[in-house]
Amino acid sequence: xxxxxxxxxxFNHLIKQHPCFNGEAHFKYGRIHLPVSPDCNIQCRFCKxxxxxxxxxxxxxxxxxxxxxxVEMVSKALxxxxxxxxxxxxxxxxTLATDHALNAFELIHRQHPQLINCLSTNGLLLxxxxxxIIAAGVRTVTVTVNAIDSDVLQHICSHxxxxxxxxxxxxxxxxxIAAQIAGIRKIASLGAVxxxxxxxxxxxxxxxxxxxxxxxxxxxxxxxxxxxLIPQHELQEYPAPDCHQLNMARESAEKYLPVFRHCxxxxxxxxxxxxxxxxLSEGLYDQGLNTFSHG
Length: 295
Fold this sequence. Notes:
Helices cover 33% and strands 20% of the residues. By secondary structure, the protein is of the alpha/beta class. The protein has a single domain, classed as TIM Barrel. It has an eight-stranded mixed sheet. A three-stranded antiparallel sheet has the order 2-8-9, with helices on one face. It has a two-stranded parallel sheet with strand order 3-4. 51% of the residues are buried.
């Protein structure tokens, strides 16, 4: 199909320089995560956002940046890491729950059009904001999809907030799944390369990853990434998956999508070449940038 061919061509072009989408690029090119998104519109039972300097996991940052400060941060990061090819926003809240991330991408795209703008989201508002995402210069989108069965997802996501409406239980799970399906289909049809993140939770969705990959592949996703659970918050008593469970999940997903195998549980303010294991963000933040309050 022409659409599938175009998507594959776009994917192959972009991943050559995207360290979070390609194993070789992971050790050669750099990325910066810009912590500009203060709020989230869903609550996953494993998610605990925070502000500190020592935890190496998603949802954690030293501070929040304004969109204007984010552009300044990119300029400073390029001085420290000329190999930087990706400006990404993945938190600490959801990138689409407020306008801060898209405002930042619009500014970055004007000042640094050579960079790949990469957005990560839970997908609740992806469909309705798809056109603006593309107009802001975003070329790669990661959507976290932890289940496509509401009976599974209600054990992972405790509630959602959609335009001020608070939903829980099976209805919230069904609503989120429908929004993710519509959003992935829409953003892929507009030309973005889509990666799916799925948190592997033993005893909850470990049997379900292949089905997620199958469904999202049919919607236009190009890549799949499995993130091992970090036991915390409401799921602190659940074990992290072992190597066997992780490999089994990857094999089930790989029947439908290529699987990225180099994810490092990056912070929302990470910077540098991921595969080299050196985070440059501490030096950047020590220079003192203007930030804004999240409360």
